[in-house]
Design goal:
single chain, alpha/beta, 6-stranded mixed sheet, binds zinc ion
């Protein structure tokens, strides 16, 4: 009947393989049905009874099916008779087949693989493990990834009980700590940053139907994170032979500095990239420089704008790395200076409130010159007032080029640094500032890096990197 009846040899072989596997899977399923039958002496009465039983037994089924499939597809590795020694490259003969059970989200999976031992190097290994991609330790990557996602949201103890409730698999909180720190070890800003293509995609989305390039805001700011010194390790109060009367160390608040790039889409903020660490100004500048040098920010496709509260070190970095960026002094931060003047000069009075409102309005209209003149003409009645006025004047005068709020508004630029303040909140505070929580600095940096990755949309990319590192370590 023509060409349709001709089936290639490859196809026949492929089908046969599939038939064999299918047969094996059916046998597995039958085994599982036996277990199910034992559980149910009589038919279940309620829907919940059915779901509960299937839930309790599901990992026997899914783990078993996984086991069968893995054994089938990795038969070559299982039957391997020769391998090279990774150290001396000598040819080794397969030794005994060794069983290993690993834990996964679909249940425990048993693996059978040959052991190869080099007498001259006194080194043994399982080429099967590397070929299939199982990692050292019981808990496999799918579990570790789920843990990393969970602990970036909730405290470790909560994560432990949630993990068990939702997956049916135990995972201790101490082990969760270890996994988190391993996944986040040595992460840099470039590891958690989205690619240039991804950033361009987000920009293009905002740019649709607009005749002006979108405004990309860079906000820089600090947040405080409760930390404890490394010397506190192993000295938790109440541990050890003697109950400690008080902690031998004091928790301290450290400055987590960070920056955030985000797009303005009308009233909406489109997140692009965040990086927060317990770091000093130089380290923050270095991270910004890496972003710049990696060419991640398509400066020609946006109108870049930097908004912050006026700290000198911030402008220094901005001027050096993004000299074209529009600089904005946080409008709301100005209000703090004006309030201080009003309080010192007018006291707690209606007049004080009115003066602040009128002055803020002038600033809003871009009349910083008038505000400066007004401050200069104020007759200070006290030392305190004189100081507050002088401070305020110096502040506004220094940044007057960054206070063209009228023009800025027309251009669609932001007047305040709300975008970075909210990322301080959702990246740092939400997870790190919990009552009773004190973080070792390294651990808090690990957690911050993972939370940045989460919001930058790069947690999966961080995990790919972790997998590569595990592979390199086991080689
Ligand atoms: Zn060897």
């Amino acid at each position: 009947m023509g060409a349709a009846e001709i089936i290639s040899f490859e196809e026949v072989r492929a089908r046969k393989q599939w038939d064999t596997l299918r047969q094996q899977l059916h046998e597995r399923f039958d085994l599982w049905l036996d277990t199910l039958e034992q559980q149910w002496h009589e038919p279940p009465a309620t829907f919940t009874e059915v779901t509960t039983t299937v839930w309790d037994l599901r990992q026997q089924l899914t783990g078993g099916l996984t086991e069968t499939i893995v054994a089938h597809v990795s038969r070559g590795e299982h039957d391997r008779t020769q391998a090279h020694c990774p150290r001396c490259a000598g040819v080794l003969k397969a030794g005994e087949v060794v069983c290993r059970t690993v834990e996964t989200l679909v249940g425990p999976v048993q693996l059978e693989r040959p052991y190869f031992y080099c007498r001259s190097c006194r080194f043994g290994h399982y080429p099967f493990d590397a070929a299939v991609g199982v990692v050292p330790g019981c808990k496999q990557l799918d579990m570790q990834q789920a843990v990393a996602k969970l602990v970036t949201e909730v405290p470790y103890d909560t994560a432990q009980s949630l993990f068990h409730d939702l997956t049916g698999v135990p995972f201790g909180s101490e082990r969760m700590h270890t996994v988190t720190n391993q996944v986040a070890e040595n992460l840099t800003v470039l590891d958690v940053a989205p690619s240039r293509e991804e950033i361009e995609r987000r920009i293009a989305e905002v740019a649709v139907n607009r005749f002006r390039r979108p405004v990309l805001v860079l906000g820089i700011d600090g947040a405080y994170v409760p930390t404890r010194p490394a010397s506190a390790r192993g000295r938790r109060p109440g541990h050890g032979r003697h109950r400690a009367k008080r902690a031998l160390w004091r928790g301290q608040w450290r400055d987590a500095k960070g920056f955030r790039f985000y797009l303005l889409d009308g009233e909406r903020i489109v997140h692009v990239l965040s990086w927060h660490q317990v770091q000093n100004e130089e380290q923050l500048g270095e991270a910004l420089k890496q972003i710049k040098e990696a060419g991640l920010i398509p400066e020609e496709q946006v109108r870049l704008c930097v908004v912050c509260d006026g700290a000198e070190w911030i402008w220094k970095h901005v001027q050096a790395l993004f000299p074209q960026a529009r600089q904005v002094l946080d409008y709301y931060h100005c209000a703090q200076y004006l309030h201080r003047v009003a309080k010192a000069h007018y006291g707690a009075s209606v007049q004080a409130v009115e003066w602040v409102e009128a002055t803020m309005t002038r600033l809003y209209l871009g009349k910083v010159g008038l505000v400066l003149g007004g401050l200069r003409r104020m007759q200070a009645q006290s030392d305190e007032a004189e100081k507050a006025i002088a401070n305020c004047w110096a502040y506004l005068n220094e940044h007057r080029g960054r206070t063209h709020y009228r023009h800025l508004r027309r251009g669609g630029y932001p007047l305040g640094s709300g975008g970075i303040e909210s990322s301080n909140k959702f990246i740092c505070h939400v997870r790190l500032k919990r009552s009773g929580a004190l973080w070792y600095e390294a651990n808090s940096d690990h957690m911050l890096a993972l939370r940045c990755a989460k919001y930058n949309g790069t947690l999966d990319q961080v995990f790919v990197r972790y997998q590569q590192r595990l592979r390199e370590m086991s080689e």
